Amino acid sequence: MKSRWPSRLWIVRHGESAGNVARDLAHASGLGRIDIAERDVDVPLSELGKVQARALGHWFAGRPATERPEVVLTSPYLRAVQTASLVRDAHGLAGDEVPHCVDERLREREFGILDRLTSFGIKEHYPEQAAFRAAMGKFYHRPPGGESWCDVILRLRSALDTLSLHHAERRVLIVGHQVVVLCLRYLLENLSEAEILDIDAAGDVANCGVTEYRFDPTEGADGALRLEVYNFIAPLKEAGAPVTSAPDAAVAAR
């Protein structure tokens, strides 16, 4: 029986971005607003982020071709596209003709009026939103003009349908963002709100950290993807690349 799932699925957060660096500086300085000029979609990798992405590519390159991605799906955000391109340049894919598909459903969560604000800035400029978020929880809170986690999950359900329709039984690499990694875990593992928020609270997803699933035909009636590793950072450590895990610049309060 043909599986509807990829045989292997790697979900990776992009390398460190210039936004991560700006966010850390703003938070450490107690500032309300993150100082970065570009639109969030145009924020590039930092120099360290490029090192991380190359390290990930070299890690994949150290595997046999039959153990490397043969399809790449990325968020349209520049930092994710650059990460995937550097993995390719390091010969981390199964071959030179591996398709690289940009999918807007894998984009970062949209923050609306809270864009570029730190937790200090939200409390200063939009105290009512800080109160709404505290009352509703981050899973359901939708800032004006932005998205809740549930909104992200809704578009990712559609992306998973595309994955099963076009990439069944293939080895697929997804390059996205912290919220994409977490919300895909929620969907693939049928987690509850409490379970995924506990995972989130345990620590941020590392830049270029690897979450890997393998298809298990013995899971259920039709088989399922089984989690192999989460937030796996050995590729960075093996290459001597520093490990970073700061939230993106868009907003400090996740």
Task: Write the SSE topology.
Layout lengths: L7 E6 L4 H11 L18 H15 L9 E4 L3 H12 L10 E3 L16 H7 L1 H10 L12 H18 L4 E6 L1 H11 L4 H9 L8 E7 L7 E9 L1 H6 L15
Parallel strand pairs: 1-4, 2-3, 2-4
Antiparallel strand pairs: 1-5, 5-6
Outline the low-pLDDT stretches: 250-254
Question: Helix amount, in percent?
Answer: 25-40%
CATH fourth-tier homologous superfamily: Phosphoglycerate mutase-like
Distance between the termini: 41 Å
Q: What top-tier CATH class fits best?
A: Alpha Beta
Q: How much strand content do the residues show?
A: 5-15%
pLDDT average, as an integer?
92
Order of neighbouring strands in the sheet with most strands: 3-2-4-1-5-6
**Would you tell me the structural class of the helices and strands?**
alpha/beta
Count of β-strands: 6
| Total of DSSP H or I helical runs spanning 4+ residues | 9
The CATH topology:
Rossmann fold
- Radius of gyration, in Å, reads 18 Å
**How many distinct folded domains?**
1
How would you describe the shape?
A: globular
Could you explain how this protein is built, in words?
This protein is of the alpha/beta class and 254 residues long. The protein has one domain: Rossmann fold (3-Layer(aba) Sandwich), CATH 3.40.50.1240. Helices cover 39% and strands 14% of the residues. It is built from nine helices and six strands, in the order βααβαβαααβααββα. It has helices at residues 18-28, 47-61, 78-89, 119-125, 127-136, 149-166, 178-188, 193-201, 234-239; strands at residues 8-13, 71-74, 100-102, 171-176, 210-216, 224-232. A six-stranded mixed sheet has the order 3-2-4-1-5-6. The N and C termini lie far apart (41 Å).
